[in-house]
Design goal:
Strand content of chain B: under 5%
Oligomer: heterodimer
CATH topology of the largest domain in chain B: Cytochrome Bc1 Complex, Chain D, domain 2
CATH superfamily of the largest domain in chain B: Cytochrome c-like domain
Largest sheet of chain B: 2 strands, antiparallel
Distance between the termini of chain B: 134 Å
Number of helices of chain B: 34
Helix content of chain A: 25-40%
Number of strands of chain B: 6
Number of domains of chain B: 6
Strand content of chain A: 15-25%
Largest interface: A-B, 59 and 50 residues
Chain lengths: ~240, ~675
Amino acid sequence: MTRRPVACAVLLLTTIGTGCKHASTSASTLKPTATGVAIVVSSGDKQTAPTGSVLTNPLVVQVNDDQGNSVTGALVEFHGPAGVLFDPAAVLTDSSGQATTAVRLGTIGGLYEVTATTPGKAHPVTLQIAETALGYQQQLGSILQDKYCSRCHNPESSAAQVSNYDNLAVKPHAFNDGQTLNKMSNADLLSIIQHGGPALNRSALMPPYGNTLSPTDVQAIIAYIRVMADPPYRPAGTVYEQK
Amino acid sequence: MKSVKQLISSVWRALFGDTMRAFAIVSVILMLTLAIAPAKDHFSQWHRYQNGYLSMISDRGDAISLRRRFEPGIQQIWHPEIGVVDRCETCHEGLKEASLADVTTQPFRKHPVIPHPLDRYGCTICHRGQGPATTVEEAHDSKLAGVDPILPARYIESGCGQCHQNALTGTPQLNLGRQYLAQYGCVNCHMVKTPDGTVMKATDNPPSLEHIADKTTRDWIFTWLKNPQAYAASATMPNYKLSDADASDLSAFLISSSKPQAGDVDATIIPAAKNADPSAGASLYGESFCATCHAVQNAAGNLVGGDVGPELTRVGNKVKPAWLQAWIENPRVYDEHTLMPHYRFTPQQVAMLTGYLMSKSDSDYSTDAHLGTATPAQIAHGRKLVVELGCAACHTINGVKKPDNFAPDLSQIGSKPLAQLIFLPGMKQTLPTYIASKIKDPGSFGPAMKMPQVPVTDAQREALTTALLSLSDRSQTMPDKLRIAGFHQTTYEPAGHAGKLMADLACMSCHRINGHGSDMAPDLSYEGSAVQAQWLDSFLKNPNTLRPALTRRMPRFNLSDADRKTLTDYIMVAYQSPAIDPDKAPPAVNPPALVEQGRQLFYSKYACQSCHTANTNTDKGYIGPVLAQVGTRLQPAWIYAWLKNPQALRPGTIEPNQNISDEDARAMTAFLMTLKSAGKQEGKQ
């Protein structure tokens, strides 16, 4: 009878502890030769990838000294919520003061706050980095919006996809425009996508997609809009008091 | 000894000395024995999780409704026809509770939104693991031989692929994986029979080596074999890590087995090639939209262009100028089935392009192997290597038969029992790990392993693994009603003179017609119902841009008047949509009031100008085709039908179906038919 609870506890601990274990084992073998006082993102923040997958670009952070110059050989440790894996989880900065790691996101869709920490002179310096994991529904929304929505709603123009944003008399909202879109309810978004702008007394330049996209597809696009919102979307609805 | 005996007998007397006492003791023992079963149940793991769930929801505001939906005891989903017996919900109590979206502790998380109700398919069909088990370890991570552990989340799309043989929008990884199986030539050696009964075909188009000596030199073959990716970063040919001697012998055999191709040898280099302006060649390369299919590395090291044809970054290092010239002139002479169109370039243009492409060489890329003449022993050893390595599984080689079943059948690889796999020391003993490691480094599984290391990235390898995992036993034994068939190319070929011409121009390398061909360019199955004959003829003569935002465009083939007429006549007659009745077409010329009404609807009610440009002076819409001359391009019946339901005519088009009334559609058709090209209007006046 006692064997099972113990086995179960061990299993749970290993699951939870995987992320930290990586850091501790590899950090102990690294010998930092310098310390910095500041840590900044070089590249690889604010990426979006499906749950459980590795981010397309590695996360690169730079350690600087108090003069703002890069520091070589400083220790950087990466930590994240349960399920997030770093390869490597601890690394020394290279000759240009940069530490690079590949990030595998966890299995829950949503915003992930990962941290990069360097020991620092007096106290550890920590940097918060945000990455987004897309669950099935959000990823479906991402693919659909890429085909149907982004050419007008994304103001960024690239050679592969030229944006139509600048050609429109009434400017559409970018999907990460949380300031505006967070205030709109799911029902409003659903009706504007299905019935077009005039449904909510907005511009007719937004056509109706209710006959082209299934309700599931539209829900997926809304789920994508919600996960991409900056500032993050907090669902309204019944807020229950904790007993 | 005596004292022990005394002790036992005194205990015996104390317990069973008289009848009443003995009866009481036996009753107590019996009761305790009877309590074992319920106690075992009470202290079981799942029971603790259910208690944990109840205490978790008791802290929440919606505790009452959550508790009402809570079902105690073992929960089971049972679907005998698909072999599902899942008791996962015994512990995962909150899977269907929408209000638990914020809970992140397992096993109480809400299941993310998926297209299927959880009860209809169960859990193990996608997640694997042991459905009937009621302990965490047994269900998730059983060590018993031949059982599936839980699938890592990154391969979860393989679950969808068991029933869905078609490409779903929501499973990009699975779709890519299936594409890579064909694109990287995996299915040249491995048989993959999909559950709908079709055998997967490779799309990597490995070149035939029957006439290789016409095309390139032994030195280049040697250098290529040593490291294909050093020649072209995008090459899908694996690096076989051959020794210098082996690569040299292989090249010797390939050159010696090559037979000259009638027609393209000894083509005298057109003198213009020498004095052709290389910059003119570059602009001709651009004008001919070669980059739609061929990629070239730019100064920053990025590939620019398509991946249909081979990368041309160092083509000057590879091909012989005479061969290249003959190839550009008419590729179908060297390779009858090539995807490359016969462009009908003038000799001057052929010379310019040849000169330009020959200049695409890299002085750092050495093909200077100085192999000299091959000895018969080298050739014989080369032939032996060709047979051993299975080169003929992909390439056509004179005198070597394509091997049958060269590599293991992968049709059910997704359910391969673990007991049949040989794991490397230290490797996690699961099927996904095995498949991924095998693709990553087949050589590590032993020197006798013939499988080469396919040049794929980590993400591509995960996609390939996902696609292979979807080929499970269950996918084969699934009831037919659950199976969704994939898209399969038809064998349609256009007939007659026009058919020959279309094959020569390789129309179906870009366009799809009646289910056959590529989906790069618009489907032409109903083109005859859509466009006007005169416009089609002028478009074939000089293709102008219909969609300004696209980078891939229709190239210009120097077609003769007669050829254009053949094509136009055939397309106009053969490619008619059954949904359009030409006798009920709305009139092409309409009263001005109706035209004005259509104009108003176009600009205000439906705001078509957000995507289309009807008036080049005022409109800016940049997504759909320019409509400024649509009245000379499209037929009124097509415009009307398109406005009514675009997806019915071209499935998947992004133009939304706006549920336009018959009246509005007629008015807008009338307006659009007045948008004619300048030349046409002058003609009228």
